[in-house]
Every structure is written in C-alpha cells, then in structure tokens.
Design a protein that fits this description.
Elements (H helix, E strand, L loop, with lengths): L1 H6 L21 E2 L19 E3 L5 E3 L2 H13 L3 E2 L1 E7 L5 H16 L3 E7 L9 H16 L7 E4 L5 H14 L5 E7 L4 H17 L5 E6 L24 H4 L5 E8 L1 E4 L2 E4 L8 H6 L23
Parallel strand pairs: 5-6, 5-8, 6-7
Antiparallel strand pairs: 1-4, 2-3, 8-10, 9-10, 11-12
Helix pairs in contact: 3-4, 5-6
Length: 307
C-alpha cells in the first residue's frame, strides 16, 4: 500500500494530469547516477521483434533498438518525479489505445515523467502492437504539441497483459530505474480492474516469479479493498471507490506505481530474474530468442500476417 511504501522511505509522488510537479513539494528522480552505457538489449528483450511488411509477410523490425538507446541517453540528463510511465498495448488498437496514450502524454507534457515505455508485441498475430503504439504516440504528440523526440522506449515482445508488465519491468530493471508509473483506464477496456482484482493471481498463474511491486495511485477500479486489506493494487473502499459508483457511466484514467525490484525472504529480486512463465505464456511468447538473430514467429493461425 502507498502508506506502507512511504513508511519504508519510498517516495510516492501523487501525479497530476493537469499540473506540473512542484520541486518544493515533490521529490525528483535524477538520471545523473545511471551508467553511461545503455544495457545490452538481450538483457531485457527475449524475442526477435517482427512486424507485417507491405507484402503481408512478417519481417524483422529493428527500430526499437535505436529508439531505446537514444531514450536512455536522454534519461541520463533528465529530472522528474518518475523516470518513465508504462503504456500497455491493446490488441484492437483504435480508441482504447489512443486513450491510454493521451493519458501518458499528459504526464510527459506536465513533467511527471521523462519518457514513456510503449509495450505490446502481439508477435504471434502479425502486426506488432509496439509499432502501432509508437505510430499512435507520435501522431497524438504532434497534434497536442508534446515533444517526444528521444523520449520513447519500446518493449516489443509482450503478447499478454501479464507480460506487458513483466517485460516493461525487465526494461526498467536493466536500465536501473527503481520506480515508475503504469497507465491504464477504467470502464474503457477494464484493464485496471484486472490489475486491481486479479494481478496477484495472474502473476502466480502465468508468470511464476516475483515480478516486482505495484500499488494503486488514482482512478476507480471495479474491486475495492475493505479497510485493513493488504493488497496494494486495490484502492481503499470508500465513497469514491465502491461497486455502486463504479457502475456510473464515467470514463477515467487509472495510474499505478510500479517497481521492478522486490524482496523475498530477505533477498532482493528484480524482474530480470523472471523466466518465461507458464506453458500458456510460452506458447504465445517463447521468451528465449536472441533479439537480433532469432526467427520471426509465424502467426498462430498460419498464412499471411494481419496488416
């Protein structure tokens, strides 16, 4: 929970989508202490990122590597309450994808984060969600006048909500980023409710590892924690957070605090310690390839990839 994290000395600034942070009230993260060289891609990317070509065939997609190197160099000179915000992909694209990207761009424009992590591979369905996210983010940023040059990191492998989180936290751990934000939405795709109501079970069932930590910051989700509850992903039950108000037709951003590091039995672990997970996850995302020398995995249904 947020109060427990603060008692442990962890800074949990409450972000705003409308106002910039004030340095006299909020502790800022600084990239000055980051290592001079970006981490080797193979430490956090465990697939060969591919995408649909104009001929309807899968082909390697390499833009992510240079984007990540430039964004890492930018982070080394950046300051903000949080270094990054994770934006997870959505297989249907469209409105939901634009909505999440818009939330993240507000955080970037107001100076709450220094860069965005765009996560979504969908690599067994053909079209790469990370590339869709990248195109959408660049387009919306241009419309809104937000500078995203060298401020976009790409996680191009995930095929599931659980691996969106795991892979993005791997990237953060490899880059020595202790904390960040995760952008989601309430009553648009219901993803935030998955995080708040079932994420512990999802991690145990699908990831089989101590992936890191997550705590709810703001926004309404479907399942609430009664007073005294211990699940930090769930907001406290109250007037704003209860089953009745959740049924009201209101669209709302939801933000979670995340960290790729945790302790288990006195041992410090990171998302980099996570393996490929369950058989279900491995079937969609094998998680054992060289990002530059592996093979493009064919779409699950075979044939030409979906453009």
């Amino acid at each position: 929970m947020r109060s427990e994290l603060e008692e442990a000395g962890q800074a949990i600034p409450m972000p705003s989508l409308r106002r910039p942070p004030r340095e006299d009230r909020v502790r800022f993260w600084s990239g000055d202490s980051l290592p001079p060289e970006a981490p080797a891609p193979a430490t956090y990317i465990h697939c060969r990122p591919c995408d649909c070509g104009s001929d309807g065939r899968l082909a390697p997609w390499a833009e992510w590597d240079e984007l990540n190197r430039r964004a890492y160099a930018h982070l080394r000179g950046a300051r903000s309450p949080y270094p990054v915000a994770i934006v997870t992909g959505f297989h249907g694209g469209g409105y939901i994808l634009r909505y999440r990207v818009g939330i993240a761009l507000d955080l970037l424009r107001n100076g709450w984060v220094s860069a965005l992590v765009l996560s979504g591979g969908h690599r067994r369905g053909g079209s790469n969600e990370a590339r869709q996210l990248l195109d959408q983010t660049r387009s919306l940023a241009g419309q809104r006048g937000v500078d995203v040059e060298d401020r976009l990191l790409v996680e191009p492998c995930a095929c599931h909500t659980a691996t969106n989180v795991r892979n993005s936290l791997r990237l953060m751990a490899a880059m020595h980023l202790e904390t960040g934000l995760l952008v989601s939405d309430s009553k648009v795709s219901s993803q935030a409710s998955v995080f708040s109501s079932d994420f512990d079970a999802t991690v145990a069932r699908d990831l089989h590892c101590a992936v890191g930590r997550m705590s709810h910051l703001l926004g309404t989700t479907a399942l609430q924690r009664m007073p005294g509850g211990r699940n930090g992903c769930r907001p406290t039950f109250g007037f704003r957070h209860n089953p009745i108000t959740f049924l009201l037709p209101r669209r709302e951003p939801v933000l979670f605090w995340v960290s790729p590091f945790t302790s288990l039995g006195g041992t410090r672990l990171s998302a980099l310690d996570c393996g490929p997970g369950s058989a279900k996850m491995r079937a969609c995302e094998p998680d054992d390839q060289d990002p530059f020398a592996g093979a493009c995995l064919p779409p699950l249904r075979g044939g030409r990839c979906a453009l």
